[in-house]
Amino acid sequence: MTDNNRGIAQVDQIKRWSPVWIIPILTLLIGGWILFYHFSHQGPEVTLITTNAEGIEAGKTAIKSRSVNVGVVESAVLSDDLNHVEIKARLNSGMGKLLHKDSVFWVVKPQVGKEGVTGLGTLLSGSYIELQPGAKGEVAPRYELLDSPPLASPDAKGIRITLDSIKAGQLNPGDPVLFRGYRVGSVETSQFDADKRVMRYQLFINAPYDRLVTSNVRFWKDSGIAVDMSASGMRVEMGSLTTLFSGGVSFDVPDGWELGSAASNQAEYHLYDNQRNIQDSLYTTHIDYLMFFNDSIRGLQAGAPVEFRGIRLGTVAEVPYLFPGATQALNNDYRIPVLIRIEPDRFMQRLGDNFDLEQHLQDGKKQGLRASLKSANLLTGSLYIDLDFYDNVPAYKGPNKVAGYEIIPTTSGGLAQIQQKLTQALDKINQLPLNPMINEATGTLKETQRTMRDVQKTLDNLNKITASPALQALPGDMQQTLRELNRSMKGLQPGSPAYNKLVGDMQRLDQVLRELQPVLKTLNTKSNALVFEAKPGQDPQPKRAKQ
After folding, report:
1. Residues near 212 by beta carbon (within 8 Å), at least 6 away in sequence
2. Which of 389, 405, 458, 547 would give a disulfide with 290, using CB separation of 3.0 to 4.6 Å?
3. Residues contacting residue 394 through CB under 8 Å, at least 6 positions apart
């Protein structure tokens, strides 16, 4: 058996570890270390939400803070509701300290706005995302990616104010906030409050100008050029160059008011249309009165002044004032009710607290105090109410109160009063017997002409008498008398100055009377033709002859 086994080869197993495996093991360890180092030193991931990912490219768009790369965009996909874009970005290691709840992200790209052209550096490098570090709160799960940089950083020192207005489009983000023409802040946001149906604007006032905002300040729209044509006349106001094209908002404490206490953050104020409306809004205490006018109220609007000899006492509240239960016959005596507000604060500070305005108005009505409509602006036709004392006005015998309001009697005034007096004068002229006067003047002229012809015949006879030989036989005194009479009569004969002047005067009188006839006819049909141009009448049509 020993011999048989000698021809068979024996295989022994290798007991030693081969050095060939060192290289793959080292490679595996190094790869694992690289992966571990990559993930352990990777920065936090940030989710950004935007409506449009224009200019954003995954793996290329950088995230910068103060022009230093702090991260890169990894992906940009649509959200599940397909209404937004979700951008996943990765910050560099150690940049997590930039993220807080108030951190802000926005896209930097070329833009043309009110402040000029911005983002020109991205024309070649492409758009990037700017990160403004926050300071308060924990890291948010997602951030909103803005299209433009915020007007004020979250940690900026100052105060934020909220304005409300019933008009939309008055202010836009970026518009300046001015104090006496000096820029102290900006408009941050504008949005419509559907619940309260008002526009809301958020303003940011930079420090140290935030202490200018007090409880008594008023905000108004500051237009570049404002033209106001009201009952007070025509006003043209031009703002600063800052608001000449874009507009803005200004604020200040009204004249005569105290500064008030410092305003708190997110305080709410009302936005007025202009600075003039602010002064009118200061007078909140008022006494209402009712007036009835027989004249046309066209041109009288709510907000028109109520004055006493140029001193403003109040404001027109409602035109016309239609109160419940008001019934009037539509006839010549129809009167239009107008509600006014007498504002004692306009003059009570100077007259003292002992001045009883209501009693003075009651006594004034007995002494001829009446209200009338007067023209405030001939260009626009606006009217205002004027209170004054009138002589020879009938005593007021109407009710003292109607619909719970005291009554102030009225009278015609302004153009209506002029038109009324002119109509009365024209009526008197129209009642004159002009046709008989014209006929009488024509007859007088004819009689004068016949008389002059008789005078001529008399002169001819006198000439014959003075030239006759029989005159020489008369006494000298008689001859002298006849000669004087002859010379006197020659001054009245045709061709003499006296004769020509008399005939010319009679002809001019006849012409004036004939030209006056169409004028009186026009005034008879339209009494205000001297004030307003009368439309030309139709040419008279000839009547056919009767058969």
Report:
1. 179, 184, 205, 251
2. 405
3. none
| Peptide bond connecting 436 to the previous residue in cis, omega within 30 degrees of 0 | no
Looking up tokens 């129209």 gives 430
- CA 101 → CA 105, 132, 188, 447, distances in Å? 12, 11, 19, 115
Sign of CA dihedral 351, 356, 358, 360: negative
* Eight-class DSSP state of 16: S
Tokens of 15: 């007991």
Is 50 exceeded by the pLDDT of residue 1?
A: no
pLDDT tens sequence across 236-254: 555 555 555 556 888 998 8
Q: What is the pLDDT of residue 338?
A: 92
What whole-number distance in Å separates Cα of residue 493 and Cα of residue 490?
5
- CA of 524: how far to CAs of 168, 428, 432, 520, 536, in Å? 54, 11, 12, 6, 14
Name the residue with higher pLDDT: 290 or 476: 290
Helix axis angle, 434-467 to 476-490, nearest 10°:
140
Task: Tell me the whole-structure pTM to 2 decimals.
Answer: 0.49
Cα–Cα distance for residue pair 428/532, rounded to 1 Å: 20
Contacts of 361 (CB under 8 A, 6+ apart): 289, 342, 369, 406, 408
Locate 140 and state its tokens: 């948010």
Q: How far apart are CA 486 and CA 509, in angstroms?
A: 30
Longest CA–CA span in the chain (Å) reads 228
Q: Look up residue 269 and give its two tokens.
A: 């104020």
Kindly tell me the sign of the dihedral angle through the C-alpha atoms of 355, 357, 363, 366: positive
φ/ψ region of 67 (left if φ > 0, alpha if ψ in -120 to 50, else beta) reads left
Weakest mean pLDDT among 126-135, 264-273, 357-366, 502-511: 502-511
pLDDT of residue 102: 81
pLDDT at residue 153 tops 60: yes
Mean pLDDT of the chain: 77
C-alpha angle 297/300/303, rounded to 5°?
Answer: 150
Joined tokens for residue 170: 């008055």
Lowest mean per-residue pLDDT among 178-187, 198-207, 498-507: 498-507
Which pLDDT tens digit goes with each residue over 312-344? 888 898 998 888 777 777 777 788 899 998 888
Residues 6+ apart with CB under 8 A from 306: 312, 313, 314, 315, 316, 340, 341, 342, 371, 384, 385, 387
135's tokens: 């300071």
Torsion, Cα of 357, 359, 361, 367 (10° steps): -140
Compute the average pLDDT of residues 210-216: 91
What residues contact residue 446 under an 8 Å CB cut-off, 6+ apart? Answer: none
Choose among 158, 153, 205, 215: nearest CA to 178: 205
Residues 6 or more apart from 116 whose CB is under 8 A from it? Answer: none
Mark out the alpha helices in 62-129 (DSSP H runs): 122-125
CB 44 within 8 A of CB 99: yes
Q: What is the identity of the amino acid at 530?
A: L
